[in-house]
Specification:
This protein is an all-alpha fold. The longest helix has 26 residues. It has 6 helices and no strands. It is elongated, with a radius of gyration of 19 Å.
C-alpha cells in the first residue's frame, strides 16, 4: 500500500505523470497486441496486411522503454513520432477490415447496434470493421501526451 501512495504522490509531478501515462498506454498496446495476435491467427499465413498492427506494436515495445529512459534527451520526441504512425496503421486496418467500403461497414455495424439484443443478424460476417480504430485512439492519446509542453525546454537537456 505504501508503494501505491508513493506512486500517487510522485505522479503529481508533470515528468512522472507523463511517463506514467505513457507506461499505461504501452501496457494497453500490449493487451491490444495479444488480442490482435489471437484474432489474426487464421489470416497471418495468407495476408500480409494482418502483420501490420503486430509489427507496429512489436516495434513500439522496443522503442517504448528506450524512449522512456531517454525521455528528456529526445525520447519523448521519438515516442511522438512512433505514436503518430498508429492512426495510419489503424486507418489502414479499418480500410482492410471494411474490404474497401468503410461506409457500408459502418452502416452494417450501426444496423446491428440498433437491433434488438440477442438477435443474430444474417449476412454479417468478416472481421470487425471498427476494431482497428482502437489503434487510432491509442496512437492519438500517445501523440497528445508526448506533445504536451514540448516547447518548455524539457527535451533540451
Amino acid at each position: 500500500m505504501n508503494i501505491v501512495r508513493a506512486i500517487l504522490r510522485k505522479s503529481r509531478e508533470p515528468l512522472v505523470a507523463g511517463k506514467l501515462l505513457i507506461f499505461l498506454l504501452l501496457a494497453g498496446l500490449a493487451l491490444l497486441f495479444i488480442e490482435v495476435r489471437f484474432e489474426h491467427q487464421a489470416v497471418l499465413g495468407r495476408r500480409w496486411q494482418a502483420w501490420l498492427p503486430l509489427g507496429y506494436c512489436a516495434f513500439l515495445f522496443l522503442m517504448g522503454p528506450v524512449s522512456l529512459a531517454l525521455w528528456n534527451r529526445g525520447g519523448r520526441r521519438l515516442l511522438l513520432i512512433c505514436f503518430s504512425v498508429a492512426p495510419l496503421i489503424g486507418t489502414l486496418g479499418f480500410w482492410f477490415h471494411s474490404k474497401g467500403d468503410p461506409w457500408r461497414s459502418v452502416c452494417t455495424v450501426m444496423k446491428v447496434v440498433c437491433m434488438q439484443p440477442g438477435r443474430i443478424p444474417l449476412g454479417v460476417d468478416g472481421p470487425p470493421a471498427l476494431a482497428p480504430l482502437a489503434l487510432v485512439g491509442l496512437g492519438l492519446m500517445g501523440v497528445v501526451i508526448c506533445s504536451a509542453n514540448l516547447g518548455n525546454g524539457a527535451d533540451a537537456k
